[in-house]
Design goal:
- The complex is a heterodimer of chains A (about 325) and B (about 325).
- With about 325 residues, chain A is an all-alpha fold.
- Chain A is about 70% helix and about 0% strand.
- Chain A has a domain of about 210 residues.
- Chain A has a two-stranded antiparallel ribbon with strand order 1-4. Chain A has a two-stranded antiparallel ribbon with strand order 2-3.
- Chain A is globular and about 65 Å long.
- The model of chain A has no long low-confidence stretch (mean pLDDT about 90).
- In chain B, helix 3 runs parallel beside helix 14, helix 4 runs antiparallel to helix 12 and helix 5 packs across helix 12.
- With about 325 residues, chain B is mostly helical.
- The N terminus of chain B is likely disordered.
- Chain B is built from 15 helices and two strands.
- The chains are: A mainly alpha (about 325), B mainly alpha (about 325).
- The interface between A and B is large, with 57 and 56 residues.
């Protein structure tokens, strides 16, 4: 086995080195500036509540980005799903959950059909469906805040497990769904197809991957994840409002690329997204602790997204980048 | 087909013939004509009034200012959505410089736009980053920076006092924003049809590899496409500045992106690039403005439904434009 020069080794593993380094610097920095960071149970619970729905949505988005596509509608599907729960809970009870998930799945199906069947760039297609989802949310909620008072529904996300000393249930939901995501991508033939499409779409087609079917399924899976995130977030918030997810497009996208998943597809994976979500969410709470403007935080996430996109793409493999 | 047209053209007036040709080449003309007929039939008084005509022209100017620049990038098969950022931050710069330079400060808009466009081109062509995400990040950074500047300076809006002539606008029927958008339109059409740039952009959009093999400096023309896009957006953003009442927009909203993109796609420039151009975007912008103008004159329109209409319009537009995307696998 020939020795690989250090420079090349670093270059090849840049998408692992950067997130881990950033994570260590972030934890040390937060620990120095704020002695309560991860030191009290309250701070751990707050961070867990903050990142859980985000991790679910980011897991879904990772699947799509891994395939080389992009889904703009994720935050809006989260919003729509939460709003459906908030508005219709008083009429339907727990029946809102299947409805919310079904609506999310329909949006995923439309996204997938637009990309795979009509051959529209996923960026444009999901921009359109995302706005439609937001429009429906605005229409059925009328822009009002809805409150859910049923303790059973609230317990779905906020029940503390084990009682009294543990973390809220939504955290375990998130970890479980994240683990399922890892299993799908790394442990099933379907996951290998996602990687194949992301690495080389022509090659995948020639190798017999059913492009249309796989891509539609991935988009539906992504929308399902977003829908679950919305339901759980509505339960955590004890209601819903129109601002859910409004400012989350950039952080969501940043968390996926910061983890080391390349935008051009085929590199990275769902297992990296947990680290990305931790970096983005802890950075976010760190910045809000020093009272930075929300707009400034968005600028930071925009810059992070741009820099990580530039750093993670494997340019030897992709000939034409559009 | 062309033979038939020329034979029958002997009987018709030349204007009629050119109109028929225009409709044949641009299917969106059907939509425009049908909309004009329907809206004048349903709400004739309101739709055909002078006031509405001026409002259509103003909307047309604003939509064009957003859509003309990115058309050139879409011709090459890329997507440029930095136009919202260029518009907002360029106008803010003009506002910041106003106390020192007077109304000449508006000239900073095209200069700033050219600079950002050039930067976008470098990031895309030299650093090999997918264009839509780098320009999205650029737009978000610039848009949120505008709000930060507003908050730091502690003002509510970035407004410049309008000059004397704009307060009592003397020309009937032609509002100032429309006149200010005219240079952008002329410049865009000039670049497209009277320089070699338009041809090269189309060539890159139709077959990138062939163009590279033929010895065209692809990176140079990609950077030029982004630069032209930024410059035109900057120039056009002066018209938006005037339209909004001599002020810069300060709150970033991703939905503004839709206005420009929808006009381009409606006009018939496919997202895979290679055909179309600013002349089609003119028609697309007109169609976009007419739809929303006519829609909001209808009685009983709920403002809560606005988002739904915008989304549905973009949805229909991308499906209609998907016909010309055969052969390339999109991601």
């Amino acid at each position: 086995m020939t020795a690989v020069p250090l420079k090349e080794l670093v270059q090849r593993n840049l998408n692992s080195i950067i997130p881990i380094t950033a994570f260590i610097i972030l934890v040390v920095g937060l620990r120095i500036t704020n002695p309560y960071f991860l030191a009290t149970r309250d701070s751990v619970v707050t961070l867990a509540l903050d990142m859980s729905w985000f991790l679910i949505a980011a897991t879904g988005l990772t699947l799509v980005i891994l395939m080389g596509s992009f889904d703009f509608s994720v935050p809006n599907i989260v919003k729509l799903s939460a709003i459906i729960c908030g508005v219709f809970y008083e009429y339907l009870g727990f029946g809102v959950i299947p409805i919310a998930l079904l609506v999310s799945l329909i949006f995923g199906l439309v996204n997938g059909l637009l990309l795979a069947r009509f051959n529209i760039p996923s960026f444009m297609a999901t921009l359109a469906t995302g706005i439609i989802a937001e429009g429906i949310a605005q229409l059925i909620s009328g822009g009002y805040i809805r409150v859910i008072v049923d303790p059973n529904f609230i317990a779905l996300a906020t029940a503390v497990i084990p009682p009294g000393i543990g973390l809220p249930a939504i955290f375990y939901w998130a970890l479980a769904l994240w683990a399922i995501g890892i299993f799908i991508t790394l442990g099933t033939p379907f996951g290998r197809k996602i990687y194949a499409i992301g690495s080389n779409i022509e090659g995948a087609k020639l190798a017999g991957v059913k492009l249309i079917k796989t891509r539609i399924l991935v988009f539906m899976l992504c929308a399902l994840y977003a829908g679950i995130a919305g339901v759980l977030y509505a339960s955590q918030l004890q209601g819903s409002h129109m601002h859910i997810g409004t400012l989350d497009t950039l952080p969501l996208f940043s968390s996926v690329v910061v983890g080391g998943t390349a935008l051009a597809g085929g590199i990275g994976g769902v297992h990296r997204t947990l680290l990305g979500v931790l970096i983005v969410k802890w950075l976010d709470s760190g910045m809000s602790m020093v009272a930075l403007d929300i707009n400034f935080r968005m600028v930071v996430f925009g810059a992070i997204a741009l820099i990580m996109t530039i750093l993670t793409i494997d340019r030897r493999r992709v000939k034409i980048i559009r | 087909m062309s033979n038939k047209v020329s034979r029958s053209s002997a009987l018709k007036s030349p204007i009629l013939v050119s109109v028929t040709r225009l409709i044949r080449a641009n299917p969106v003309m059907w939509a425009i004509i049908v909309m004009i007929i329907i809206f004048s039939a349903i709400e004739g008084d309101a739709f055909l009034s002078t006031r509405n005509f001026i409002s259509i022209l103003r909307g047309f100017a604003v939509t064009l200012a957003l859509a003309l620049g990115p058309t050139f990038v879409i011709l090459t098969g890329r997507l440029d959505i930095s136009f919202v950022g260029i518009w907002m931050f360029g106008n803010t710069l003009a506002w910041l410089l106003f106390p020192h330079m007077g109304y000449y400060s508006l000239l900073i808009c095209p200069i700033f736009g050219t600079f950002i466009g050039f930067l976008n081109g470098i990031i895309h062509a030299k650093l090999k980053t997918p264009a839509f995400i780098s320009t999205l990040a650029m737009t978000a950074v610039l848009g949120y920076l505008t709000t930060i500047i507003r908050n730091w300076l502690g003002v509510i809006s970035l407004t410049v006092p309008p000059p004397e002539f704009a307060q009592n606008w003397p020309i009937p029927y032609l509002p100032l924003p429309f006149l200010l958008a005219l240079p952008t339109i002329i410049l865009a059409l000039y670049i497209m049809f009277f320089t070699k740039l338009g041809t090269y952009f189309c060539a890159i959009g139709s077959d990138e590899e062939a163009v590279t093999h033929m010895g065209v400096n692809r990176d140079k023309y990609l950077i030029l496409a982004f630069t032209v896009s930024g410059m035109l957006t900057g120039l056009g953003s002066i018209a938006i500045f005037v339209h909004l009442g001599w002020q810069a927009k300060v709150l970033f909203d991703l939905d503004d992106v839709v206005r420009g993109l929808a006009a381009i796609v409606l006009g018939g420039t496919p997202l895979s690039g290679g055909m179309g151009g600013p002349h089609r975007t003119l028609l697309g912008a007109l169609a976009y403005v007419l739809i929303f103008n006519g829609l909001f004159l209808l009685p009983g329109i709920d403002p809560n439904q606005l988002k739904l209409y915008i989304g549905a319009l973009l949805f229909v537009a991308v499906i209609a434009a998907s016909k010309s995307l055969k052969g390339v696998i999109m991601t």
